[in-house]
Amino acid sequence: MDFRSSDTITGPRTEDVLPTTATAAVKVVIVGGFGVGKTTMVGSVSEIRPLTTEETMTQAGVGVDDNSGVETKTATTVAMDFGRISLSEELILYLFGTPGQERFWFLWNGLFEGALGAVVLIDTRRLEVSFDVIGRLEERGVPFVVAVNTFPDAPHHPVEALRRALDLPDEVPMIDCDARLRASSRDVLMTLMRYLHSLAVPLA
């Protein structure tokens, strides 16, 4: 390759550089079934331009992917989403969104490596897609919170009814959210951090 004198390597963009005050970084995974809003949440809350691996859905997925309830969805994550948020001057969260279609779940093994905790996004219109997701987290022993993404046409259920349907222990936090809104998504992550802290600090 012919590099001319005017060619330069610019490095990361200014907004992508870590704050100089950062002293700790934590890996968090955003999981859930197909079309529950994982890419949306990472994109809404990330302080850097998020990395996405969305591809246009094709005929190859017909009869393989279950898109019941999200028939109008035209793109899907095929590897991961990635973003970053500073929860304080010292604490940085790295966010990894998983693919929702079951045929891509083999990628979860790498994405969960080193993760401190997870957010499970659910859609009350298609609650059944969350069962296997939660089961996989419990098998791995990954602490998680459940975030109910409030789609405009989604039915609202009492928290206790949702807990019973998902067979969730009382201590697992559950929170309503709108994955499109930065403040709402940030509240979910703060809930996860508080939960992880409570697990790390034994009661007196």
Give your account of this protein's structure.
- By secondary structure, the chain is of the alpha/beta class.
- The protein has five helices and eight strands; from the N terminus they run βαββββαβαβαβα.
- It has helices at residues 38-45, 108-111, 131-140, 159-166, 182-200, and strands at 24-32, 54-56, 75-77, 81-86, 91-97, 117-122, 144-149, 174-177.
- Strands 4-5-1-6-7-8 form a six-stranded mixed beta sheet, sandwiched between helices. The chain has a two-stranded antiparallel sheet with strand order 2-3.
- Strand 7 (144-149), helix 4 (159-166) and strand 8 form a beta-alpha-beta unit.
- Helix 1 (38-45) crosses helix 5.
- The protein is globular.
- The relative contact order is 0.18.
- Residues 61-65 have low confidence and may be disordered.
